[in-house]
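Justification of computing resources. Each target in the renewal requires a structure prediction run like the one illustrated here; the chain below, 1017 residues long, is used simply to show the kind of job we budget for.
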Amino acid sequence: MKPLKLSMTAFGPYKDKEVIDFTQLHEHGIFVVSGSTGAGKTTIFDAITFALYDAGSGEDRDKSLFLRSDFADITVDTEVELEFEVRGRIYRIWRKFGHDGDRAKREFYDITGGQIIPAVEKFQVKLVQAKVEELIGLTQSQFNQIVMLPQGEFQKLLTSESKHKEEIFRKIFKTERFTKMVELLRDKKKQADKLYEHAQMQQDHTIQEIKSRLPERESALFVAINYDAINMYQIKQGLIEEQGFYEQQSTELSQQYEQVKGLATKLNIQFSEQKLINERIERFMQRQTELSRLQQQQNEMAAQEERLLLAQKAHQIEPLERELTKLKSQLQSATTAVEKAKLESEQAKQQLITATLAYENVQKDEALLETYTKNISQLEQIIPIYETIDIQRNHVDQLKAQQLKAQTLYDNLQGELVELKLQQQNQQNVVTVLEQAVAQYEQTFEAHATATRNVELVKETAKLQMNIELLKADALSKEQQATKAEQALHAVEQQIRSNQAAFLAASLHNGDACPVCGSTEHPAIHNSEMLQVDDTQIEQLRQQSDAARQSYYQVQSKLEIEQQTNTEKHNQIQRQQLQLEALAQYEEQLQTLASHLADLRVKQQQLTTERTQLEQFNEKREVIQGRLEKGQAYVQEIQTQLAQEKGKLEQSELSLLPQFTTVAEVQIALSNQLQQHQSLKNELKRAFDALQQAQLQQNSSEVNQLHEVNHLSDKQHEHELAHIAFATSLQNEHFSLESYQQALLAEQAQHEIRQMLEAYKQQLHTLTAQITEDQEQLEGKQLADLTELQQHLTTLNNEQDERYAAMKQTESYGTQCLTTLQKLEQSADQIESYKVKLQQMEHVYDLVRGQNDAKISFERFAQIGYLEKVTHAANERLRILSNGQYFLKSTGRKEGNAQSGLSIDVYDSNTGQTRDVKTLSGGEKFNASLSLALGMADVIQSVQGSVHIDTMFIDEGFGTLDEEALRRAIDILIDLQQTGRLIGIISHVAELKAAMPAILQVKKLKEGHSTTEIIVK
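Resulting structure tokens:
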């Protein structure tokens, strides 16, 4: 980055717009910034940093609030504009920070080749900041360490401790990825540790499950399980032996099961055959009973057949009855219609007489139509003249109203502008007060965040301690319960062994071989009393013992995890110098900070609202002023138009007729004539239409009356014929009217009776045939009692189920032995694999995080490489500046308990000794710091290809050098600028100003503010 032109307005001591054109330096790449103390030399550097990063150049000057000029008028905005070049392209960035209620603004353009193109999509803070860092390749912190070297700050890299250098190198060379690598390895190590512990617990759980999945017996497997020390080889061998035992037992049980199954199959066949005979005999007896019931219904079925026959005959006569009923109804309707037609005929005659008289009366006024037509024509001819005059009158009235409205609006706007100016001033006062109130928001926010983390850390640690105490008590209780359960189980097992010994001892005689040891001598025969031991009790005690021990292991594992976490938390508390006893004090501080922060947030929100309101006032004021200017011109224009239109109206009114004043009066007279003319025409038409309608109605009613009389005669004849036909049909079928009505049945009822009769006959025939067939097949067969046979079969089936269950149970025990053996082998392989992986992860994690003999982390190791490159590049200049006396060395000197590796010492060739750089004098320290800064710039350009450091600004420090050292420093800087860099130096040293080819002179005027001037020698 190389600056081309810098503009400052109301910035620091610069009251008005101050422009510094660096292109005036021409080929001179090095210059000195000179001026009296407080004139504003460092402010130039602040302006460059502010334009690029929205902050000042040093720790004490990074807040833009302090960069506002005290000399500038309140209406002048604080602005900085910088044109700069990066890799052959030219950019312009402009910033204005808010004051007096205004919002901060920024613009960023690419102006290469004279074309102005936005460098970012939107002028937002984050987008502009990201683009600047992308172009320059440095963050603000890196820029201040390498390019912009403020007073006293660029020596920090030389004299700071290793941990501070680590932060600087982390930002500059981006080594934070190595820190993330340590965190990733720590997580992987914890994960591997958990997997290893889980695999061990899974193996223990599998071994303990053997007792619950297999019946315990006197075998090598359970002897190995019950030992205090678990031997995996003995357990595996025991499982193999148990599997062989259960396979042999399963074969024996399978043979017994097949034998019982054969007997049960034969007996089941015999039982099924006799059961089938019994069912057929019972079904034959049921059919005989059903046949007897059907035979008793024969008389009832005959009566139903007779009823169905009569219903069929009546059904044939029913259509004649329906026709007679229909004709009777039609006859009544025809009689009613004849009476109605006579009445309508009389009414039509009377209406004709009335209509004739009305038409004759209206015809007398028909001569008035011609008079109305003549008047209407005369009025229509004079209407356009009156309409034109009325339009002129309305236009004049509108202009008068517009004049009054415009003048009123103009007066209101003037009053509103006065009121708005007062509101604007009041709003500005409110914004200023709020800005002063929220100035400490960021500091309070950081303090609150730190206090919150401290309180949470202390609370978590205290809670962990409480949990640990509870877990310790729980673990002790669980261990006591497990020990008690194991002791009870051990006592019962001891009793079993005692019973076995007593049983063997009872059959021992001198001279007989012992079945246990083979000895023929028995000097101490077991004579303890045998006690009865229940197998169920043993199993319950074993399960209780296993459950209690497993519960203890779980609690103990959780306790160890909590203790490890507690240790980490305590270490963190010690590093942050916190105390658990001071939790109440921390919480009180946090509550105070939270309350204060909440108040500041409210005020900050209020400030945003008030600033928006102030901006609205400003915008509204501009709008009102524009409206006032337009309103004044509009009032003058309306007045001119009104005078012209009044003259035209007075000239037109001379042509008005005396009988009408306005067009409305003419239109009313015309409307009355038109209405009377139309009314008379309508009345004549209505009378004529009514007469014609009455004549038609009278003719129609006479024709209708004749038609209805003829229709009535026809219906009377049809009714008589239908009555004769119905009576004849009843007589032919030997029905009286009453018997006919009783015989009538609906078609659905007839269908149901017909189906019932058919079903009865079919069922009777079927039962008769089935009974005949059963008599032939069951001849000589009788019912038998199957109770005894059923009991015997049930006994065999139960025995078969028991044998099958025992066989399957034994098979499952054998399968369980094989499955458990496989799981144990898998667990052993898994444990070994996880153990190897855990050891590898622990080794790599400790190595990378610095837990090694050298006490150097992987990140620090990478930074040491960068530091060695920096010191090597720095020594090229320090050798010249110190006349070959001093050389910087990157050493592994320890600094307390912290990691080593980033210490910088200086080798003195005069004494042959290496010592701390802090022992150098002021001038020597300045030379070393300058060399280190230049070396840092060289290394950054070589390591990061996208970063080109074309500019360097140095603020003070040359006053500590003697004449010879100053000359060498000037030579170094002149050589450096010959590589194309622009170097600016702030200094009061006369020799330095005399040696520089160009001077940026800063003058402080008597009024207090400053101006600048570039002087090229």
